[in-house]
Amino acid sequence: PPVTSSRKLVLLGESAVGKSSLVLQFVKGQFDDYRESTIGAAFLTQTVPIESGNFVKFEIWDTAGQERYKSLAPMYYRSAHAAVVVYDITSAASLVKARSWIAELQRQADPSIVVCLAGNKLDLAEAGQRQVSTAEAQKFADDEGLMFSEVSAKTAQGVEAMFKQIAERMPID
Ligand code: GTP
Ligand code: MG
Questions:
Q1: Is the CB of 18 under 6 A from ligand 1?
Q2: Cβ(81)–Cβ(9) under 8 Å?
Q3: Whether residue 17 has its Cβ less than 6 Å from ligand 1
Q4: What strands lie across the sheet with 114-120, from one edge to the other?
Q5: Which of 25, 64, 83, 130 is the most buried (most CB within 10 A)?
Q6: Which of 21, 24, 129 to mutate for ligand 1's pocket (most ligand atoms within 8 Å of CB)?
Q7: Is 21 touching ligand 1 by the criterion CB < 6 Å?
Q8: For 144-168, how does the pLDDT look when each residue is reduced to its tens digit (9 = 90+)?
Q9: In 16-169, which ranges are E strands?
């Protein structure tokens, strides 16, 4: 019979890159143009089928990106099986912040954690607002051994595929 394995996933990244929006799109298929900035962290779950016929139940911690909450992050990533480090493709500064989160995970998280670099707001590329090229982010991800996706929480492009790819990488018990 199919097995469902619970796996803890944490989202990290600068404020306003769209972490909560990605989770809302993944879990509820919804998008809001006006989201309140997260206070502390939010918890949601979503179960996804994997190729083997089994299921991964993601226990998702959507952390707050504002600097004043920075010290809380280790509580959420310490026991995580997966981390999605989000930047906004229209903000070069947000990629700098993503790099620093990845360095922190490499120092402090479980060495077996699966990390995905996610470039959000892909819908704004068409409006000429892109500041981070796909090639630059892909090269960084390759150099660091990370998964990489460009996504849009607004249009849903790439969102489910990203979480499914992460689910396929989760060890099943
Ligand atoms: P904190 O909770 O402060 O860390 O921010 P966050 O990373 O959770 O960002 P949030 O999801 O609250 O989104 C910030 C703003 O970006 C909101 O106004 C969203 O509507 C907008 N936004 C999020 N994702 C997208 C996207 O894919 N495309 C566009 N165009 N806007 C987006
Ligand atoms: Mg948020």
A1: yes
A2: yes
A3: yes
A4: 41-49, 55-63, 4-12, 82-88, 114-120, 147-150
A5: 83
A6: 21
A7: yes
A8: 999 999 999 999 999 999 999 999 9
A9: 41-49, 55-63, 82-88, 114-120, 147-150
Verify whether ligand 1 is closer than 6 Å to residue 37 (CB atom).
yes
**Six-digit token pair at 52?**
């083997």
**Ligand 1: which atom is nearest the Cα of residue 24?**
11
Count of CB atoms situated within 10 Å of the CB of 26:
22
Contact 151, 145 (CB under 8 A): no
Give the number of C-alpha atoms closer than 13 A to the C-alpha of residue 78, restricted to the C-beta side. 6
pTM tops 0.95, yes or no: yes
pLDDT for residue 87 is more than 90: yes
Type and span of the H or E element at 21: helix 19-28
